[in-house]
Structures are given as C-alpha cells and as structure tokens.
Predict the 3D structure of the following.
Amino acid sequence: MKLGSKIYLVTIFAILYIPLIYLTYYSFNAGKTMINFDGFSLVHYTELFKNSRMLIIVINTVVVALLCGLFSAIFGTLGALGIYSLKSKKRRNSYLVGNNILIISPDVIIGCSFLLMFTFISKQFGIDNIQGFWSVLLSHIAFSIPIVVLMVLPKLYEMPHSIVNAAIDLGANYKQVLSQIVIPYITPGIMAGFFMGLTYSLDDFAVTFFVTGNGFQTLSVEIYSMARQGISLQINALSTVLSVFVVVAVLIYYILNTSKLKREVK
C-alpha cells in the first residue's frame, strides 16, 4: 500500500473515531463538563443505570428497532419479489423509481407527511393519542421498506434461472420453489435489509421527532432534549455503553462468520 493511501486511511479513521474516544474519555470524568477532567469516576454510569426513565426509553428504542427490522424485511422482500416478477421492463423501472424517490427524500419531508397523515386519521376517526409507539413503528417500517427492496433485488437478479427452471421441471410448485430455492438464495440480502432497517430505526431523529407523542420517546429524541437543556455527561455514558454493545455485536458476527467460512473450506 502506498504512503499516500496509508495517510488517507489513517486520516479517515481519525476523523471517525477521535470524537468517539473523546466522548468516552469524558464519560469517566468526575466533573460535570467536558472542559476539564477532574478525575476518574463512574458516577455518570451509576446515575444512568439509576435513571429508570432513560432505561425505559432505551427499551422502547430497541423494541421499535427490532420490530422495524423484522417487518421491513418481510414487506421489503415481498416488494422486491413483486418488482422482480414483473415482465414489463417499463413497469419494473417505474416501481424502482418510486422506491428510490422515498429513499432520497429528505427526512423532514417524510416526517411532515407522516405527521399530517396521523393528524388526519386522528381527526377523521376520532382516535386520541394516535402519536406514540404505533406511529413511530409504522413510520420507521415505511421508510425502511425501500432500503430492504434495494438490498434484496440484486440477489434476485444474481439468482440463476436454471435453478428455478430445474425445480419446476422436477415438479416443484410455486410455494416449494419460493420456500426452498428463492428464499434461501436471497437470505443474505434479507438479513442485510433487516440490519439496515434496524440501524436506520435506531439512528432516526427527524421522522421520529415529528411522529412521537408525549407519552413515548426514543433515544434520539431524548438525547436531543437533554442536549438542549445543557450538556450532561450521562449522554456520554449512554453513548459509550451503546458503542461497546455495537462493537461486541460486530465482533460476535465476525467470529461466527469466520467460523462458518472455515467449516465451508474444510
């Protein structure tokens, strides 16, 4: 690797990781600000784990993210199968354009649209407190589905037609072809879509800010509210805990994937 490439990689990783290291460092500060380090302490972690409201918000966020990943993977896969099955190239491209428009649309526009929709439903059908868990979940599923479609479609196009034709020639019906050939082949795309939906849900602020109600909060909105009231090192502690969780999850995935590849080679 050339020296210029090494310098470029080091610079990129420094830009990405130095803020996280800085944030983690001050999460152990005995003081209450990130101006001076007054000594090592776990006081902010203790306060975080005693904060029952914050723990409930973390659970809310994780539950919404998992359900979002699951349902967006299901509906996104069905959407990808529907687009793939279209014989007309013009119609297929039209659906893809519509799908891609939802991806590149600004989050503020999407959030406003969902807010107007839920407000209309509330007034039209007399449903009180419609903005809460269900509004956040439905919104997250809706903006994650187009991402899953883009994750699954390439796997469908990579799938050799000869496999499907052979199964049909051997007497397999549509259900058998779908469950035993198509779904197993596109599973990596489905899993990628699941994790993308989960990540987008955990990460989203703009849409959630518009559709959440007074009785329901997610981490992104709560951290924003806390930051507006002044810097609290509980945010640092929470961010550190989440970062460690993500690193452990990635390492477990890497170890399992490596073990699987080694077994396949043997």
Observations:
- The longest helix spans residues 52-85.
- The radius of gyration is 23 Å.
- The CA atoms of residues 259 and 265 lie 10 Å apart.
